[in-house]
Amino acid sequence: MILVNTDYIEGKKFEMLGIVKGATVRAKHLGTDIMGGLKNLVGGEITGYMEMLTEARAIATKRMVEEAEVLGADAVINVRYMTSSLMQGASEIMAYGTAVKFIE
Prior knowledge:
Layout: E1 2-3, E2 14-27, H1 30-42, H2 47-70, E3 75-87, E4 90-102
Parallel strand pairs: 1-3
Antiparallel strand pairs: 2-4, 3-4
């Protein structure tokens, strides 16, 4: 599956199949939250949160690709990511784009 964040793929003609998305909701672990609070005092990257968000983006992307495959897509164009806070300590990460099928 080709994934791009542009509205075209060089040298390819395609028909649009529709919007596809994948999402996951992740909650912070108490230990990560405590370490994050300490890092907030002294500064620096909060690796626990980075790992959580990296994993969440991968899950959301996988779910988006699975939805595109059901439609028979060859690619997803205009791929975007969105993060929103649902409640204290929990966030939703969504991947979305337009599924397309190549015209041969």
